[in-house]
Amino acid sequence: MTPEKTPERTLLLIGHQTSTVRKAKALGLAVILLQHRSKFEPEQAELADVLLLADYTDPSVARPLIEAAHRAWGFSAAVSLTEPGLEVAGWANDRFGLGGTGFAASHRLRDKWEMRRHLAGSGAKTIGASLVRDRDSLAAFGAAHGYPFIVKPTDVAGGFGVFRVGGAAEVDDAWDRVQRVRRTGVDRGPTDLFRIGEFIMEEYVSGPEYSVEAFSFGGRHVVIAVTEKLVDEAHFAELGHALPARLDLGAEQEIVAAVTAFLDVIGIADGPSHTEVRVGRDGPVVIESHNRIGGDHIDELVEAAYGVDMAAYAVGWPFGLVEELAGRPRPLAGACVRFVHTGAGRIEGVEGVETVRARPDVLIAQVTASAGDVVRPLADNWDRLGLVAVRGSDTDAAVRLCEDLVANSVNIRLRPAARV
């Protein structure tokens, strides 16, 4: 690290994308990057002042490395914007008295059971929940709270392992499914970043789903956007997002109030948050939350619609390099992302992506699958094949354009599963 890079201007960044390192460097920060080998890109070695490649999901590996980095170079903030790095960043904030969100709040959000226990113990609004112990615990939860109810891992993202138990007749199958996922673990997506632990049961909340993108400044929470989510009750893969959400003012105010109260109870003081909410018959209910930016390129949607770069805020705020938001920003446009998916089968070809990407109103267009890949039925976010994200004059215009491009301009030729 060069002499002008002092600890007071040095960031410990745990994981995340190359673009985040670029933004930290653009703000004049020195960066110590603790990156997982599976997420390393060569440009990160060029950008970072110090690069440590290690399994930061393992505290026995990450903590000694962070201790050594602090002794050798020093840093004044620890930030992670990726789910598996949040707890270790919180630990570093606590260990070195850096401020920001600490381990306890990060852990409450990573562990869905701890979140529910904390909310219930604080007298905050929540829903019935319990850990899955055995087959009988599933039956007992259904008898106590009614059907349907949700079963999901306590500490995995992306909708993996989430399913609904529709009635007493499905309890045996649900228990078999829990045991099967425990045996196989995370078998797609970032398989080396998530590990299956406990499963939680939660009351099912029926109603439209939203997420709230917020940034906290010393305990003051500013909601930047309310995002509407396109979901299908048949599975737990999110199909798209659009913002600003098309809500009447009263409904939006209820969602914002519920989320800011939740962040207070959980203990989030600084940095970004992404909170998922369902609006049921009793009003908004927090389903889960994360002290990071939302996935699925929601940060690009927020920047396109509101002009706020949440990643730059996340790395700049601890150093006072970004201006505190006085209140909710006004939308400048609408933005939408829709995901590309097909039925099951084998991909024969992909066309149209480059043409779509070249449009000035398209933010992102990508298909990660290619000819020869076998596609499984859509079950969770890791089964999606790509996406298109756009900016429009308002949310309606953005949604119309995005859905048209996905339906008519991106073409994935598929040999159906019956013919594979």
Concise description?
With 420 residues, the chain is α+β, with helices and mostly antiparallel strands. Helix content is 32%, strand content 27%.
Textual characterization of the structure:
There is one protein chain. The protein is of the alpha+beta class and 420 residues long. The chain has 4 domains: 7-99, Rossmann fold; 102-112 and 206-332, 2-Layer Sandwich (D-amino Acid Aminotransferase, Chain A, domain 1), CATH 3.30.470; 128-203, Dna Ligase, domain 1 (2-Layer Sandwich); 334-420, ATP-grasp fold, B domain (D-amino Acid Aminotransferase, Chain A, domain 1), CATH 3.30.470. Helices cover 32% and strands 27% of the residues. The protein contains 13 helices and 19 strands. The strands form 4 sheets. An 8-stranded antiparallel beta sheet has the order 13-12-9-10-11-14-18-16, sandwiched between helices. Strand 2, helix 2 (42-47) and strand 3 form a beta-alpha-beta unit. Helix 4 (86-95) packs antiparallel against helix 5. It is globular, with a radius of gyration of 22 Å. The model has no long low-confidence stretch (mean pLDDT 92).
